[in-house]
Amino acid sequence: MYRPLEIFIGLRYTRAKRRNHFISFISLTSMVGIALGVTALITVLSVMNGFENELRTRILGMTSHATVSTYGGDMREWAEIRPLVSRHEHVIGSAPYIQKEGMLINGESVNGTVIRGIVPSLEPEVSEVANKLTEGRLEDLREGEFGIILGSALASQLGVVTGDKVTLVTPTANVTPAGVMPRMKRFTVVGIFNVGMYEYDSALAMINLGDAQKLFKMDDTVTGLRLKLDDLYLAPRVSRELERELPGVYMVRDWTQSHANFFRAIRTEKTVMFVILLLIVAVAAFNIVSTLVMVVTDKETDIAILRTLGATPRTIMKIFMVQGTVIGFIGTLLGLIGGVALALNVETLVPAIEHAFKVKFLPADVYYISELPSELHWDDVVKICSVSFLISLVATLYPAYRASRTEPAEALRYE
């Protein structure tokens, strides 16, 4: 009896065995609905976080965290700039590159492609392509031998394997007695990579930097420098610092600018999914309204007696708010436990379900991410549980207010 009266009676109403079992059933369904909604929210957002992280890892495995280039032209003084960039505390790798567009031809197969000129010995400092090679090695791109490494989908479209010849047509023109002709060069396929991102596997080809300079008539210039940082999330800050520190005028772009639309779309999708799944919690919370309205009707006599004993309308309101809050709290707590448990084990549970029912949710021949990744963010968990509990709390206001307006004389007239 040392606890506040509102909490004591509210908990008593929650635990008491009601004469109306339908009210108990609706209370239980409300609790289960909130738990399922919170579980679904935590699990789905964790899976989306996992997909976002997986895509970011694959994209940044082929692109750089940041690039240094000049405005409107090629970079000639890259050899002097590279040591200055590498001195930054967060830069752990840098490499020159050339990036142009062209067409690859093999027989009747023609494909547009992005040609990237690289230094094989420096490329592992800025990308993971060396670990993604299914055939060949980066060292096979020797200057003067005109070797080329293709993405797996691009090689499949051209119908070539390691050792075959392909013709590269570039926009750079040759002036001949017959007129202006596109520049063409035969390359030998020395390797094939498979990143798992169709954007790169189907459109990227790599050649030696020296071969690219000869092919595109760039002398000793490059497109720019590619950088790798110790923390990819510091890329915007490091880019601004490098722009201020480097002598001359240089443009430093980071991955958040190069792929801004892609990751913005993922964030928008996460927000929409959060709102949609939150409706499950809202529906369950509105069940609390119906539950408490029926409880208030069922307990009118008790309310009237409490009022005659001196309970204020505020006290009556708090009693029923406690009852609804307990339902919301237990539902949210169960959803928290279930959601966290499911999110942490989804990478184990999904393969077990696939094995048990002989199905494949993400076939490898259709999806490049064939496993269901999950990454639990505790800030998402806190946000979901807070919003769920808040909705449950708001749902108690109207029934509790209605209970507080009960007139003792009217309620006891026919008793």
What are the salient characteristics of this protein?
14 helices, single chain, 6-stranded mixed β-barrel, 415 residues, alpha+beta, 2 domains
Secondary structure blueprint with pairings:
Layout lengths: L4 H11 L5 H42 L3 E4 L8 H9 L4 E16 L2 E10 L14 E3 L11 E5 H7 L6 E12 L2 E15 L4 H4 L2 E5 H7 L8 E6 L5 H11 L5 E4 H4 L1 H39 L1 H9 L4 H45 L20 H18 L1 H8 L3 H4 L4
Parallel strand pairs: 3-8, 5-7
Antiparallel strand pairs: 1-9, 1-10, 2-3, 2-6, 2-9, 4-7, 5-8, 6-7
Helix pairs in contact: 1-11, 2-9, 2-11, 2-12, 9-11, 9-12, 9-13, 11-12, 11-13
What report would you give on this structure?
This protein is of the alpha+beta class. Helix content is 53%, strand content 19%. The protein has 14 helices and ten strands. The chain starts with a helix and ends with a helix. The model has no long low-confidence stretch (mean pLDDT 84).
Shape: elongated
Largest β-sheet summary:
6 strands, mixed, barrel
Poorly predicted ranges (pLDDT <50, ≥5 residues)?
Answer: none
What oligomerization state is this entry in?
A: single chain
User: Can you write the helix and strand succession as a string?
Assistant: HHEHEEEEHEEHEHEHEHHHHHHH
Percentage of residues in strands = 15-25%
Helix content: 40-55%
Computed CA radius of gyration, to the nearest angstrom: 33 Å
The computed structural class is alpha+beta
Q: For the record, give the distance between the C-alpha atoms at the N and C termini, rounded to a whole number.
A: 29 Å
Give the overall pLDDT as a whole number: 84
Strand arrangement in the largest pleated sheet: 2-3-8-5-7-6
